[in-house]
Structure formats: C-alpha cells, structure tokens
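Ticket #4471: structure export looks truncated?
Reporter: QA, pipeline team
Priority: medium

Steps to reproduce: submit the single chain below to the structure queue and open the exported record.
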Amino acid sequence: MFGSLSEWILHWGLRSNTVTDPDGASIRQEHIELTVIPEWDSLSEDIWDYIFQRVDEYDFDAISRTCKLFLSLTDRSRTMLTIFDQTVAVGILRRCRNIKRINVHRRMRGDPNLLLHDISTSGVAIEALHLSSQEFPSSSVREAGEGTLGRTLKILICKSIRWPLMDKDLFAISEAFPALEELEIDWGHYVTDAGIEALASKLAHLRKINVSWCCRVSDASLSALSSDCASLSEVHLPHCGSLSGDGIASFIAQKPKLVSFSVIIYDFPGFAGGKSLQCLHINSSFLSDDNLHSIAESRLPLRELCLPFCHGFSLTGLDMLLQAYPSLSRVDFTWFDILTDESMALLASHLREVTTIDLSYCSKLSKLTFMCLVKCCPLLEELQMEGLVLVGVVPSVLLLCETAKSTP
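Actual output as written to the record:
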C-alpha cells in the first residue's frame, strides 16, 4: 500500500510566478505547492506520519501552515532545528519533542547562556549542538550538565567562537557532558595541555576531536588522548604548532584504530603503525622526498591525502607517492607551486578514482589542467581551482568539459 502513496495521495512541486509590486517592479515568487485528494482527511495519522518522515525537514514550515493536523505531525517528525532567536526556542522545544540536533545561527538574537539554559531545562533529548560565531556560554555549561542535556549530548561543535576558549571552558565541558563522542573547537589560543587532559580523562566515549589554533598544546595532550580515549578514531589538530615529530609518531603507533589524522609537522616522524589510517591531512609543513617515500612505504589504506601549503619535495617525490596510493578518492594540493600543466598531465594517470581535487592557488596551472582532469578522472565530482587566471576569451565550464571529453 505504501509503495503507491506518492501516486495518489501527495503531490509536491515548486511553483513560481511573477507579480508586480506597487512601484511597478517585477518580483518573482516561489512557493511549495501541496495537492491532496479530496478524501485526504480520511487518511489516518499513521499514514501522514509515514509520508512526513520521508519529506525533507526544510519543507516542514510550508507544510505546517496547511492545517493543524500537519502542524502537529511535522512537529512530531522534526529532528533538526536552527535557532535564529533565543526568545522563541522555549516554545518550539515545547512543541517539537523529537528534536535531536540544534544549530545556533551565527546571527542569533539573544543570550547564548539563556538559550543553553532553555535547552537543558526543556527535557528534550538533544544529541548534537552546533554553536557558530557565538560567545561561549561559560556561565551556563555546568548547569546544563545537570539536566537532560548532560546525559544525551553526544556532539558539540563550537566554531568561530567570538572569544578564544580557555582551559576553564574545557573543564566545564568535560564535567557537564560526559557522553560526548564528538567535540570540535577552534580559536583555543589560551588552551593548554591541562584543558585537553581534562577532556581525555572525563570523555571516555570520545571518538572524534577537532581542536584548532591551540598553540600551547604539546605532546602531553597526545599522550593523554592516547591513554584515556580508547574509542578515539579521528584526531584533527590543525595549526597546533607545539607538537613534536616524536610525539606524533608515538601517538600514531599507539592508536592502531586511528582512521583520520590532521596535523602540522615540523620534524617528520615517519608512520610506524597507523594501519587503519584512511585520511591523512598535513598542513603547512616542510616535507622532503624522503618524507613522502616514508608515507608511500607505510602502505596505509589511504582514501584521502591532503597536503595544503606543504613544500620541500619534488615532482618525482609526489609522483612516487601517488603511485603508491592509486585508490585515493580525495586529494588537496593547495598552493603547490611546483605543479604545471605538463606535470599534472603525468600525475593525472594516478588519480583515476579521485572524486574531489583541490588545486587552489597553484599559480602555474591553466584550463589545460582542468580539461586534463575532466578527461582522465572519470569519477571526478568536485574540482576546486580558486585563483586560476584565464587569459583571453574565457570559455564556459560546460564548454571546457565538452571539449575535454571529445578530445581523443
């Protein structure tokens, strides 16, 4: 029965029309149109609930205005919420009891501390909280941990926080949210090893941690994460420049289940271990051909190789590295000044399984590289070449693709 619902119960479509405002200007309006059969009110709530579970939540606002039944059902089916105004959050959470993920808009009106209080006292089992460009709600974190949020929150993302985080903020997070599995923070200029060690000791279920711009974090933090977080599989420490090569090597060797690792390397450690490593991201580091050879010889199960802003190696070393990993699905060679159209024509033969390539700000590349990659990489879905300068008549992307595919 359910298999034919889309044929006779519900019809969706994006409709647009042009209207004229009082000043005579033309305005294009778009809206979602819902059409139901005349007997729609005879359908049970279970059937409508089944339908709405398969509708994109971004369309719920339009659906909810149709009737009270649809408002009730969309409230019940909603699992994600973006908050633009702190003052209305209480009312929404009172209606929508199945919300699992909350995104706080970067331009939210209101007090982040009051918002966290409202969320924690709502009784809704929130599993993911994304704070973007907000002041970190330091004064309400510990209180929030005493409510439902302290037991249910698994993902906490604090990006572009207005003021740099400090150790006391990490102490509060570790005490309030012991069930966290994923934690992402940036602008931690004042965070030290003490803050990371507190997280490691309290967050026993941590699987992923992303800590950026924490310049005071050293090998002691890696040691704490290695010894206390048994489930840890993704570690991202970009722009944390106080880590040593020996500390990184020891960490990788002690975490055989490590899947993804991002770091800046000042003295290359080699990769003894890391037999589960699928994503390697080394940023802004000096890498010699010997270093690349070490990565190649490690025979890691790499699917992603990201080396943005790295330097010190030759085309021969890069070619050798790519030969060792023909199954890569993503590469990032941002700001590789050694790359030319001729060299990319040679390297492209090793990138046949790549779906995403970033060649931004590679100043010696032209549309010839674009055409070469379109032709040689049959699985390619995303190609970034920011900063590419095209001289003369600029052809459209579609024309370049057609030209590349038709060239023998």
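Status: closed, not a bug. The export was complete when the record was re-opened. Leaving a note from the reviewer for reference: The first strand starts at residue 10 and ends at 20.
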